[in-house]
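Quick illustration for those who missed Monday's session on complexes.
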Amino acid sequence: MTRIFLAAGLALAANAAAAQEVTLKAITAFAENTTYSRPFERFINRVNQDGKGLVQINYIGGPKAMQPFEVGNALKGGVVDIANATGAFYTNVMPESDAWKLTERPMAELRKNGGYDAMAAIYAQKMNAIFLARLVDNNPFHLYLNKPISTPDLTGLKLRITPVYRDFFQALGATVVQTAPGEVYTALERGVVDGYGWPVSGIFDLGWEKVTKFRMEPAFYSVEVNVLVNLDSWKALNDAQRKVLTDAAAWLEGLDAENTALIAAEREKQTKAGIQPIEFSADEAKKFLDKANEVAWQSVIKRAPETGAKLRQLSGN
Ligand code: 173
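Prediction with benzoyl-formic acid bound:
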């Protein structure tokens, strides 16, 4: 009798050790509680609820804790276990990451047609990372300006960029300066730049509506923000722990369609804040978009000749 109880007790202890709760350290490349961190914060809350006794996330926060352009390196090296970032912020680690902005197919399709798998292989190889989920899709970029223009020619303008916009704005004649989002307000206020690239959503988060006059149409590319997990941290998890993460990721990736309605509201809000659209003829707009895509693909292919052409084929354009 005693012996049976003892054996059962030992088995329980062994199980408890195997399923010991793991805490993962998380960082975001965007300011906390702003448009492009919020989906990640929802993801964290869900993991911390569902993962009790299995896996928990310790959220260190955003750019106050780490420079946005350093997040990719920190994730790769295991300084953090989980990161919320956009591909443009870590092209220094993986040049192909910026190609996400060129996808014209939804994630659900890319997960089936081999597009996701092709990217996942590059993440494993170059970034030591698992691409867990795309938390922002269905959201385009714009050029915001403080000087009016009458044709899509950016000659003479100095614009704030990230790798998302660099080659395209330069191809249209602009001079560019790269800054993290946290420096945009001051650059505009001081007139250091005449405009900036940014998605359709989020300019109110850091008060940029106060220093923005125009939004150029049409919108271009597709914003992507993604959750990455360091590959070593991932391998150290058991199946139950991984399932908490993948379930939360799939849930959030599925909710992204909600954003389409929010975009209309965001444009309305910009109009109310006095930001005027600058529009061109249908013909000029088409040329502008064709050029946006062509320049960006050429740049991906040039920086990653071995994978770029294949990614273009899988992306749908
Ligand atoms: O403009 C940026 O900082 C940028 O590249 C970006 C990308 C995704 C979401 C928000 C901003």
